[in-house]
Amino acid sequence: MDVEPLLEEIGLSKNEIKIYLILLKLGSTTTGAIIKQTGIHNSKVYDGLERLSNKGLVTYVVVANTKHFTAVNPERLLDFLEDKKKLIEEHEKGIKKFLPQLKAMREIGVDETEAEIFRGWKGMESVFNEGIRVMGNGDTWYVIGAYAGEDVKRTDQLITKIIKKCEKKKMKWKVLYNESARKTFQYEQASPITENRFLKQETPATINVYKDVMFIALWIKNPIAFRVRNQKVADSFKTYFKVMWSLAKP
């Protein structure tokens, strides 16, 4: 795995990554050498060095009135992650404290029928996670027309992540796949919490139903989910699922 995307994932900017990696190679050096080696504008190099210093990843000494910068031991990256973890835990405690107040504010404006749109991969993950939160041991999640979409790898990664969370909650999944999806979603299809059948028809979208919620997932390059919260709507799709389930094949 290339280290640069990983460093970006843990919170370093592209410029910070270039500067940090070149310092690891060069050892102690001046800003002039960093600018020359990275091709980054001098003002952005100064800014990057300051931010790396604040993260504890870069130090410097002054030699003949000139700063010489050095990358600290890469093991500091683990300490940096530990610091972030502690900060996230503190933020989590703060959010939990205010959740009742925030939920009360939201419920003021919620109608009996609630419709929302979720965009992108993060949005798609959110719509699944919100469903998992309200599901309990033995509750069933119904799916009609499951398929991998335009980005098979990314869809499979997301669904695998979701199913692993559902396994921990001991939920159940009943999934009607498009026939074209028979060789995809290997983890999901093999999971002990899922019961699977296949439809000859190719549906252009995936319908998910649980409790009083129905949402339609469009697995395009930048996926979209349309969610409706209404008990009558959800119940009607559960009935539709039962009809389609009886027609599907293992």
Please specify the SSE layout and strand pairing.
Elements: H1 3-9, H2 14-26, H3 31-38, H4 42-54, E1 58-63, E2 66-71, H5 76-108, E3 114-119, H6 120-134, E4 140-146, H7 152-169, E5 172-178, H8 186-190, E6 194-199, E7 206-210, E8 213-218, E9 224-229, H9 231-247
Parallel strand pairs: 4-5, 5-6
Antiparallel strand pairs: 1-2, 3-9, 4-7, 7-8, 8-9
Helix pairs in contact: 2-4, 6-7
Q: What does the model show?
A:
The protein is of the alpha+beta class and 250 residues long. The chain has three domains: 3-74, Arc Repressor Mutant, subunit A (Orthogonal Bundle); 78-110; 113-247, 2-Layer Sandwich (Endonuclease, Chain A), CATH 3.30.870.10. It contains nine helices and nine strands. It has helices at residues 3-9, 14-26, 31-38, 42-54, 76-108, 120-134, 152-169, 186-190, 231-247, and strands spanning 58-63, 66-71, 114-119, 140-146, 172-178, 194-199, 206-210, 213-218, 224-229. Helix 6 packs parallel to helix 7 (152-169). It is elongated.
Radius of gyration: 25 Å
Order of helices and strands: HHHHEEHEHEHEHEEEEH
Structure annotation, total helices: 9
How much of the sequence lies in strands comes to 15-25%
The order of strands across the largest sheet is 3-9-8-7-4-5-6
- In the predicted model, the low-confidence regions spanning at least 5 consecutive residues are none
Number of domains: 3
Instruction: Let me know the CATH homologous superfamily of the largest domain.
Output: Endonuclease Chain A
Look at the helices and sheets and give the structural class: alpha+beta
CATH class of the largest domain: Alpha Beta
CATH architectural arrangement of the largest domain = 2-Layer Sandwich
Largest pleated sheet: 7 strands, mixed
Proportion in helices: 40-55%
In the CATH hierarchy, the third-tier topology of the largest domain is known as: Endonuclease, Chain A
Note the gap between the termini. 38 Å
Count of distinct strands: 9
Average pLDDT, all residues:
90
